[in-house]
Amino acid sequence: MRREAAMTRRRGIAIxxxxxxxxxxxxxxxxxxxxxxxxxxxxxxxxAEGAGVDAAISALIGALKDDSDEVASAAYVALKEIGGKGVxxxxxxxxxxxxxxxxxxxxxxQSIGVKSEAVEEAFREAVKDEDGWIRDVAALYLLEHxxxxxxxxxxxxxxxxxxxxxxxxxxxSGRTLWTHPVASGPKYGVDLVDSRRSQYLSRICEVLGEDxxxxxxxxxxxxxxxxxxxxGETATPSTAQLVRILVGNLEKDPSPAVRAAAAKSLGQxxxxxxxxxxxxxxxxxxxxxxxxxxxxxxxxxxxxxxDATAVGVFRDALKQxxxxxxxxxxxxxxxxxxxxSGALALLIGALRDEAACxxxxxxxxxxxxxxxxxxxxx
Length: 378
Prior knowledge:
Layout: H1 2-15, H2 18-28, H3 51-63, H4 69-82, H5 87-93, H6 101-112, H7 117-126, H8 132-145, H9 147-154, H10 159-170, H11 189-195, H12 197-210, H13 214-227, H14 239-252, H15 256-269, H16 274-286, H17 290-303, H18 308-320, H19 323-336, H20 341-350, H21 356-371
Helix pairs in contact: 1-4, 2-3, 3-4, 4-6, 5-6, 6-8, 7-8, 8-9, 8-10, 10-13, 11-12, 12-13, 13-15, 14-15, 14-16, 15-17, 16-17, 18-19, 18-20, 19-20, 19-21, 20-21
């Protein structure tokens, strides 16, 4: 145990900083013979300028695989600080045959962010990679450095490329691109869309209506919900336009996954228009897919419209949904009681719910509504 601890400390001292590796190389590497003036002796090869730095960077890349998390973390940080000088060896490490270290190299290339034709070429191929994490990192780099890539990717005949271009914006996979705490970065999906909102959303709306792949259309619907919420009637596309597109997919798309994504996005847009609540009510009552009905009900809860259509759906749902959903509905009715006497009537009915937690929530919602003087009919 003491021997292993000592070895770990030595590795940490050696690899914790770039200076540590350079110093280590300086001590251990054979030195060429020199004259008294410091020039290479006759017959000794002239050392290539920068060879020591290249060796140090390669050693740091190797340290990414160290058994010690602290050493690997320090190596990652050091390579990121080195920046552009590390790009050529990282590209060599990114070759497909290099195995698991490829993801670390890819993440570093993306984080360093040097705009390079060689990196762009490597990442254009990488968006077709079998590894989804590699595809995500490559797509993120291309989104940041090549504005045309996104539009070209959505025209690709390769469905994996089209899916990746959209998935990196939605973070659809639910993964961070790199799970190591040192390398974890901020969320980026919606920010990227917002920065190029008009051109991206217009193209994404076209994809939602045209693409033959259901997963691509579902991803497009998700982006509209996440990035379109800040739209207004003066934006392009406007909120009303986005609503019409999503309602159309909710009602007509043959894929349950797309219809569910459209329902969820209608809730995220936060536009309690009559056409929205009507479409969601129809989906809840009539869609054959459980997932679509669930998302439609969730969306109605999040909209807070309090209109008669929504209240009618909540009346039906309180009779048949699971306890957790009934709690959500009661909470929503409490928020909309000021605008709807029908909501207050449903809360009174919820006092007879079989679950004590629902009855308790109804009591609290009624108290807040009545004591606060928010109901129009009091």
